[in-house]
Amino acid sequence: MSEPAVDVTEKGDSKKAQKKEAKKAEKAAKRAEHRGNTDNAQEIVNEEDVSQGKYGNLPLIRSDTNAVKREFTYIKALNKDLAGKVLWVRARLHTVRARGKQSFIVLRQHEYTVQAILNVSETVSKQMVKFSSNITKESIIDIEAQVAEVAGGVAGCTQRDVELVVSQIWVVSASASQLPLQIEDASRPEKADDAEGLNIRVNQDTRLDNRVLDLRTPANQAVFRLEAGVCRLFRDTLTERGFTEIHTPKIISAASEGGANVFTVSYFKGSAYLAQSPQLYKQMAIAADFDKVFTVGAVFRAEDSNTHRHLTEFVGLDLEMAFKYHYHEVMLTIGDMFTAIFRGLRDQFAREIAIVGQQYAVEPFTFLDPPLVLTYDDGRAMLAAAGVEVGPEDDLSTPAEKLLGRLVKAKFDTDFYMLDKYPLAVRPFYTMPDPNDSFTCWTNIR
Amino acid sequence: MNGPLKMYLMKPVVRHDLPVELPNCMYTMKNIHTVRNDIAITDTGHVSTTKENLDTFDQKNQAMPDMAALVARQEQILLQLADLKRQMLLLKENLKGGSSGQKVSVSTFMATRFDTTDIVINASPLHPPYFLEVLQKIWSQRLYLNIKSYLHSTISELPNEAKILVNKLQSALHKDGELPQLTSALHKDGELPQLTVRIIWKDVGPHPELVVSNVPILGEVNILRYFARLTSSMNYETSNPFELDSVLDTCYTLIQSKTKTDRSAAMHIINKKLGKSQWLCNRSEYSIADIATYSSLKQIPQNEINVNLTKWLQKCEHTFVN
């Protein structure tokens, strides 16, 4: 009983084995053939690809001490003087456009852009050009290139007079092929009536959801640099004038000054408040003989109103100083400080202002040196001439204030002025009355 | 148990009989409780005044209603008289104004003619408004020009010529900001009307702008014309204004012209107008034309001016500036 069975099994086995072997052989043959093919193909590639080893994906950078170290040049430093030099640039790939045997890449670093070009030639293969055209946008790439002067100027790049002729291109970090927003769309100028231009916009929510990408636009880069510039100029100007910078507590046990509401935070077993003004601490510093102090820091105000004059969190630039005889000492210090900041922005940040202006069209900011000081009555007279009557003891309403701003701009061509001698009636109780005129007092700066 | 219970004495919680010492380290505030009937409450405010401290006259009045009515009538008549007197004075003032007394014309010089005490002149630092120093001099008895200088943000630095002019214009003002002492007996100190002129140094080209209304007045000569008509000074429209106009227009061209040949052509015309006479257009007294020409000639290279005009310029300098 068993033998035939064995026989059968043997027979069957042998048959199956034969079939299997045949299949295996077939597969192996196919594989061999395939391998042969690919080998052949690779050989062909190797034969043709003269740029082997000059492009590809870089391995992960792991702070390996043995890795090749290269000197990189910043895009903003690229100019005509570097023409003919071979250098390395690490930057983001802004856009890439392949056209036959050429590929044009725009590299972006901060708000600066430069055009790089790949031409199929003796040293650059077709494969390399194809590889470059397939790199995803916003990837970080390293290129070795020769700087070439461009006579006509490159349109759409900040470095207009040069371009880079690429000899090596490596991808350091590839980005996803699908991005939630395109930097180009996010940095398109906001023109109200531009029927001809592309009208692709990125909505605010998309921008905020993908803030990292949004912040890469030149305008946002410039805005942040300007913000830093204002704080630096504020510090520099006041330090120059003998002020001391102080840092004040932000978590406090009681509300520091009336008026604004405070945020309550839990503080271990009790609760504390977020500081809505450094006022008290500044005054303490004055009383403690610091004479002139300033502080730059976050301010929190629990104001649930939706106007452009209310923010729950902002950076406050505060100063406090003791004066000898007249509050005009303080007023003029503040005025000079503003003028110094404006002057610094005009002289040192013209580029950033221009970049922001490209996306969001604004009139250039104008100011006078020394700052214009008008009295409240001057302001009332100007408003009255324009047909808006404001009583001598009335506060300026917001529309009246805006109108006055426009009138001053028309007459004096300045966006910054100070309104002195406000009526006592609209000022808080602690305001010192004018010794010669019981109705007026302090200064408001607009 | 009848009658009130005898209690122990309590120490008063608040004592009112103490004088309250108000702090004197702060300025005094108006007492908000005094507004009613203008009665000043001089005590500490804890006790209200009663009707009992009426003076004897008032007490009597309450007894005699006829007397009170009489007093009321008398007061009304007095008020009417005062009103009448005020009206008379007003009338007198108006009549005086018509007779063009020197004092009245001085005080109305600015108030009526300039509807503002504050004017703005936009000027290019390359073409400083020299006419202002002339105006400051020739108006010195009638109007004080308070010059303030501002640098507009489109200009980074003020050139030296402009700085010198500003210093000169402002030196009339004393260091402590008081008005200059006046020799004329007509005015007491500080009575001189003041006109604030704010010069805004700005890149406006060769022709300064005077901002009076929405549309600025362009060009030095036009600003001078405006001032001359407002103040009836500078002998402009007294006789033959067309003759002066041609000189003024030549000044305009002179400032406008960019080449030496253009300038010398314009100066040739002015030189002809001057001839051998004292002032331009053969006048015995200076006129608006002299002021405009003086200001224009100061803005061009001094070596381009011929001898005759240089001599005249020196005389101008003597009359207008020193």
UniProtKB/TrEMBL annotation, chain A:
<feature type="domain" description="Aminoacyl-transfer RNA synthetases class-II family profile">
    <location>
        <begin position="224"/>
        <end position="446"/>
    </location>
</feature>
<dbReference type="Pfam" id="PF01336">
    <property type="entry name" value="tRNA_anti-codon"/>
</dbReference>
<keyword id="KW-0030">Aminoacyl-tRNA synthetase</keyword>
<dbReference type="GO" id="GO:0017101">
    <property type="term" value="C:aminoacyl-tRNA synthetase multienzyme complex"/>
</dbReference>
<dbReference type="Pfam" id="PF00152">
    <property type="entry name" value="tRNA-synt_2"/>
</dbReference>
<keyword id="KW-0436">Ligase</keyword>
<keyword id="KW-0963">Cytoplasm</keyword>
<comment type="similarity">
    <text>Belongs to the class-II aminoacyl-tRNA synthetase family. Type 2 subfamily.</text>
</comment>
<dbReference type="GO" id="GO:0003723">
    <property type="term" value="F:RNA binding"/>
</dbReference>
<dbReference type="InterPro" id="IPR004523">
    <property type="entry name" value="Asp-tRNA_synthase_2"/>
</dbReference>
<keyword id="KW-0547">Nucleotide-binding</keyword>
<protein>
    <recommendedName>
        <fullName>Aspartate--tRNA ligase, cytoplasmic</fullName>
        <ecNumber>6.1.1.12</ecNumber>
    </recommendedName>
</protein>
<dbReference type="GO" id="GO:0005829">
    <property type="term" value="C:cytosol"/>
</dbReference>
<dbReference type="InterPro" id="IPR006195">
    <property type="entry name" value="aa-tRNA-synth_II"/>
</dbReference>
<dbReference type="InterPro" id="IPR004364">
    <property type="entry name" value="Aa-tRNA-synt_II"/>
</dbReference>
<keyword id="KW-0648">Protein biosynthesis</keyword>
<dbReference type="InterPro" id="IPR045864">
    <property type="entry name" value="aa-tRNA-synth_II/BPL/LPL"/>
</dbReference>
<dbReference type="GO" id="GO:0006422">
    <property type="term" value="P:aspartyl-tRNA aminoacylation"/>
</dbReference>
<feature type="compositionally biased region" description="Basic and acidic residues">
    <location>
        <begin position="8"/>
        <end position="37"/>
    </location>
</feature>
<keyword id="KW-0067">ATP-binding</keyword>
<dbReference type="GO" id="GO:0004815">
    <property type="term" value="F:aspartate-tRNA ligase activity"/>
</dbReference>
<dbReference type="InterPro" id="IPR004365">
    <property type="entry name" value="NA-bd_OB_tRNA"/>
</dbReference>
TrEMBL record, chain B:
<keyword id="KW-0175">Coiled coil</keyword>
<dbReference type="InterPro" id="IPR041503">
    <property type="entry name" value="AIMP2_thioredoxin"/>
</dbReference>
<feature type="coiled-coil region">
    <location>
        <begin position="67"/>
        <end position="94"/>
    </location>
</feature>
<feature type="domain" description="AIMP2 thioredoxin-like">
    <location>
        <begin position="117"/>
        <end position="214"/>
    </location>
</feature>
<dbReference type="GO" id="GO:0017101">
    <property type="term" value="C:aminoacyl-tRNA synthetase multienzyme complex"/>
</dbReference>
<dbReference type="InterPro" id="IPR042360">
    <property type="entry name" value="AIMP2"/>
</dbReference>
<dbReference type="InterPro" id="IPR036282">
    <property type="entry name" value="Glutathione-S-Trfase_C_sf"/>
</dbReference>
<dbReference type="GO" id="GO:0005829">
    <property type="term" value="C:cytosol"/>
</dbReference>
<dbReference type="InterPro" id="IPR031889">
    <property type="entry name" value="AIMP2_LysRS-bd"/>
</dbReference>
<dbReference type="Pfam" id="PF16780">
    <property type="entry name" value="AIMP2_LysRS_bd"/>
</dbReference>
<keyword id="KW-0539">Nucleus</keyword>
<protein>
    <submittedName>
        <fullName>AIMP2 lysyl-tRNA synthetase binding domain</fullName>
    </submittedName>
</protein>
<dbReference type="GO" id="GO:0006412">
    <property type="term" value="P:translation"/>
</dbReference>
<keyword id="KW-0648">Protein biosynthesis</keyword>
<dbReference type="GO" id="GO:0005634">
    <property type="term" value="C:nucleus"/>
</dbReference>
<dbReference type="Pfam" id="PF18569">
    <property type="entry name" value="Thioredoxin_16"/>
</dbReference>
<feature type="domain" description="AIMP2 lysyl-tRNA synthetase binding">
    <location>
        <begin position="7"/>
        <end position="35"/>
    </location>
</feature>
<keyword id="KW-0963">Cytoplasm</keyword>
